[in-house]
Specification:
The protein is α+β, with helices and mostly antiparallel strands and 290 residues long. It has ten helices and eight strands. The chain has helices at residues 20-26, 29-32, 57-65, 95-102, 115-124, 142-157, 186-191, 231-237, 249-258, 264-278, and strands spanning 43-44, 47-48, 166-170, 175-176, 182-183, 200-203, 208-212, 220-222. It comes from Halorubrum lacusprofundi (strain ATCC 49239 / DSM 5036 / JCM 8891 / ACAM 34). Residues 21-284 form the DUF8168 domain.
C-alpha cells in the first residue's frame, strides 16, 4: 500500500514487479546472501527481489555513504560482506547474526507485502546490521543504506527533490519494559508516534533521526543541493541535538565523533552501536558528568 499521507504519482509504479515502496526494501537481498550483483537472483522466497529502485534513489543513497566512481578496497585483508564497526574496529557479524542469515533468518525483512511493516522490520532488526553496503567500504552499513534509500524514494515519490530534504533529530517516545530497557521491535515501531513510515532512518532509545521535506518545528538541517558524504556537516548544522552534551560526557563524545564521520550509513550505524553500549540503559561511562 502507498502511505495515504503521500500523494505519489504513478510514473514509477510499472518499473518494478513489486510496489515501489516494497521493492526498495528488497533491492539488496543479494548482499544479505553474500552474492555479487551479477549473480543476484530475481526472486527469493517466492517474492521479486533485487529490482532497480525507481527515481535513482539507490544511487543517491549510495552517494551519501561512499564515493562515486570506480570503487577501491579501503581496508586491506577485509574483502568481506560483513561490516566493520567504527566503534570497536571489529567485525559487526556476531555468531547469532551469521546463523540467522545462513538459516534464512532475513526472510522477515523481505517477504511482507506491507511497506510500513517492511520499514519497521528494517528499522529494528539486528540481522542487516552485520553487513556492509559495499565490500570496498566495510564500515558502511547495509541496514542504513536500505533505510536511507527508502526515505529518499518516499520523498521523491511525493514530488520532493533532494535539495528539499532535511535531517530531523528528535527524542523518541520509547516504550519501557519491565527491566526499564526500551522496547525496539517492529510492532512497537509501527505504533510509535516518533516513527514516520519510511522517513525515519534511525530509532533508538535516546534519539530518532528522519529524512524528510516536512520538518515542521522540529530541529532540522538541510541535506544540501546534491547527495554527498556530508553527515558530519549536516549534523553540525542542526540547531539542537536530542541529548545533553553539557550534562554528560558520553554525549559529548558521541557528538564529537559525529562531527567527523562523513558517511551517512556509517554514522547511523555508529550511533546505534554507541547508544547500545553507552546509552542510558547501559549505565554511565567512567567519568560521566565530569
Amino acid at each position: 500500500m502507498v502511505d495515504s499521507a503521500v500523494e505519489a504519482d504513478s510514473r514509477d509504479d510499472a518499473s518494478t514487479r513489486a510496489e515501489p515502496m516494497v521493492a526498495v526494501y528488497r533491492h539488496d537481498v543479494h548482499k544479505l546472501r553474500a552474492r555479487p550483483h551479477a549473480s543476484a537472483a530475481d526472486s527469493y522466497a517466492s517474492v521479486p527481489v533485487n529490482e532497480t529502485v525507481p527515481r535513482d534513489a539507490d544511487r543517491d543513497a549510495a552517494l551519501l555513504s561512499r564515493p562515486a566512481g570506480e570503487p577501491e578496497q579501503t581496508v586491506a585483508n577485509h574483502e568481506s560482506p560483513y561490516r566493520l564497526s567504527l566503534l570497536t574496529g571489529e567485525t559487526a557479524a556476531t555468531t547469532e547474526r551469521i546463523k540467522a542469515t545462513t538459516g534464512g533468518g532475513f526472510r522477515a525483512l523481505v517477504t511482507p507485502e506491507d511497506p510500513e511493516c517492511l520499514h519497521a522490520r528494517w528499522l529494528t532488526s539486528e540481522v542487516p546490521a552485520a553487513f556492509n553496503e559495499s565490500v570496498y567500504y566495510p564500515y558502511t552499513s547495509l541496514q542504513y543504506h536500505v533505510l536511507l534509500t527508502a526515505a529518499l524514494l518516499h520523498n521523491y515519490r511525493a514530488r520532493h527533490a533532494f535539495e528539499d530534504l532535511f535531517l530531523v533529530a528528535t527524542t523518541p517516545d520509547v516504550t519501557p519494559n519491565a527491566d526499564a530497557v526500551s522496547t525496539r521491535d517492529p510492532k512497537t515501531a509501527l505504533a510509535a508516534d516518533a516513527v514516520e513510515p519510511h522517513r525515519t532512518v534511525l530509532w533508538t532509545p535516546e534519539m530518532t533521526l528522519h529524512v524528510t521535506a516536512t520538518p515542521g518545528d522540529r530541529p532540522a538541517a538541510r541535506l544540501g543541493d546534491v547527495p554527498a558524504r556530508s553527515f558530519a556537516d549536516v549534523w553540525s548544522r542542526l540547531p539542537a541535538h536530542p541529548f545533553d552534551t553539557d550534562g554528560e560526557r558520553r554525549w559529548r563524545l558521541l557528538d564529537a565523533q559525529l562531527r567527523r564521520i562523513r558517511s551517512w550509513s556509517a554514522a547511523l550505524a555508529y550511533i546505534d552501536e554507541f547508544i547500545e553500549l553507552h546509552g542510558s540503559a547501559a549505565g554511565e561511562l567512567e567519568g560521566d558528568g565530569a
